[in-house]
């Protein structure tokens, strides 16, 4: 199980990403628009840099919903490989059976 502080940190980051998403998108559009004057694009870039770091979507990390494990994460199921195997063994995932030979 992951530390609770790490899980809470990810929740906080997700909240910030959602909060600043529209503002970041608008500033990025201005900064990338080559038809605008250079000064205006530079100001947009500075405003973008002044936003909180954790409001960037690239700072998010996928974690298992049950344990908070950050590695070996299956996006489709939102579980780590360990929990996937455990739940499959107990027959709690429909249509999935643990293989044994």
UniProtKB/TrEMBL annotation:
Coiled coil: none
GO BP terms in the entry: translation
Top-level taxon: Bacteria
Pfam families: Ribosomal_S14
UniProt GO molecular function: rRNA binding; structural constituent of ribosome
Assembly description: Part of the 30S ribosomal subunit. Contacts proteins S3 and S10.
Name of this protein: Small ribosomal subunit protein uS14
Organism of derivation: Cereibacter changlensis JA139
Originating gene: rpsN
